[in-house]
Amino acid sequence: MDLGLTGRTAAISGGSKGIGKAIARGLAKEGVDVVLIARGKEQLDKAADEIRKESGVRVLAVSADVANAESIKAAADAAKAAFGSINIVVNNAGGPIRRMDRQILWPDVDWIDDLNLKIVGALRVTQSFLPLIPSDGTGRIINISGSASMLVWAPALTHGLNNAAMNQATSYLAADLAAQQITVNAVIPGLVGTEAREVWAENMAKQANVTKEDFLASFCKRMGILAGRWATMEEVSDTVASIASDRGKYYNGAKIVLDGRLTVNARPA
Ligand SMILES: NC(=O)c1ccc[n+]([C@@H]2O[C@H](COP(=O)([O-])OP(=O)(O)OC[C@H]3O[C@@H](n4cnc5c(N)ncnc54)[C@H](OP(=O)(O)O)[C@@H]3O)[C@@H](O)[C@H]2O)c1
């Protein structure tokens, strides 16, 4: 299916690895020029090279911190200088669970740091890139939320708060930006096989003296994922590309759950 995205532009926060890089790669394969935003320069440049080589699109790698308003404003300025306008903004940057201890006992600075990174970071990126998004019906803001917004996982209080807030901000901004013909949607993945998760699964399998496949099958069953596996990063990026295209233009304020039915059957850890 031709999504008709060739020649459009996208900015992806957290675009240097994991789901964000997969989203950038998926959009680039559809002919979209991409801006990758992350802090670590080495990983960013590596991702940009890979995407350039495999897709032939223009790729701008900008080292910036979503937790810092000035840094994100500078990233938007760089994107404007390179591409003029940005059709698609993907708010994806987020961090891993920082510690596994009970989060209600954390110092407030740790709660605040987590919220400052993901939900406030997404608002900063949205605010800074908004002037670059055209009002011609091609404008898209796509928020990468997560299933912690919909269920209780013991180590995931701040992830739950962040993702629930991402869902709410999606509804709010869909209404706020409707007059500019910019749609705002959330994708809510369950568990996704990122590079980091694949390494974790390999280590867990070694410790349990089973194959990675067997470890993952029993882990996903224990978690209650009816699909029996976690999502691939490409499954997330395909969903994003579809919403980003004209074929997805009737989605607005949607929360698209992409979880292999984890959230209806979860067995909380
Ligand atoms: N993996 C899953 O199973 C899963 C499931 C549901 C939802 N999600 C959500 O999907 C998103 C991506 O997750 P992931 O697992 O792909 O993460 P990841 O592999 O850890 O990648 C995170 C990306 O965000 C960037 N980043 C982190 N802090 C940043 C900051 N302050 N400023 C700019 N960039 C920053 C990282 O680069 P630098 O560190 O170099 O900045 C990296 O590019 C997150 O929002 C996460 O909550 C993930």
CATH superfamily: NAD(P)-binding Rossmann-like Domain
Shape: globular
Number of domains: 1
End-to-end C-alpha gap: 40 Å
Unreliable segments of 5+ consecutive residues: none
Structural class: alpha/beta
CATH architecture: 3-Layer(aba) Sandwich
Mean pLDDT across all amino acids = 96
Q: What's the helical proportion of residues?
A: 40-55%
Q: Count of helices?
A: 9
The biggest beta sheet, please? 7 strands, parallel
What is the CATH top level name? Answer: Alpha Beta
In short:
The protein has helices spanning 18-29, 41-55, 69-83, 108-117, 119-129, 157-176, 195-208, 212-223, 233-244; strands at residues 9-13, 33-38, 59-63, 88-91, 140-144, 183-189, 255-258. By secondary structure, it is of the alpha/beta class.
Task: Give the SSE layout.
Blueprint: E1 9-13, H1 18-29, E2 33-38, H2 41-55, E3 59-63, H3 69-83, E4 88-91, H4 108-117, H5 119-129, E5 140-144, H6 157-176, E6 183-189, H7 195-208, H8 212-223, H9 233-244, E7 255-258
Helix pairs in contact: 1-2, 1-9, 3-5, 4-5, 7-8
The structure holds NADP nicotinamide-adenine-dinucleotide phosphate (NAP).
Task: Describe this protein's structure.
45% of the residues lie in helices and 13% in strands. With 269 residues, the chain is α/β, with parallel strands linked by helices. It has one domain: Rossmann fold. A seven-stranded parallel beta sheet has the order 3-2-1-4-5-6-7, sandwiched between helices. It is globular, with a radius of gyration of 18 Å. The mean pLDDT is 96. NADP nicotinamide-adenine-dinucleotide phosphate binds next to α1, β2 and α7. Residues 13-14, 16-20, 37-40, 43, 65-67, 92-96, 117-118, 144, 146, 189, 191-192, 194, 196-197 line the site of NADP nicotinamide-adenine-dinucleotide phosphate.
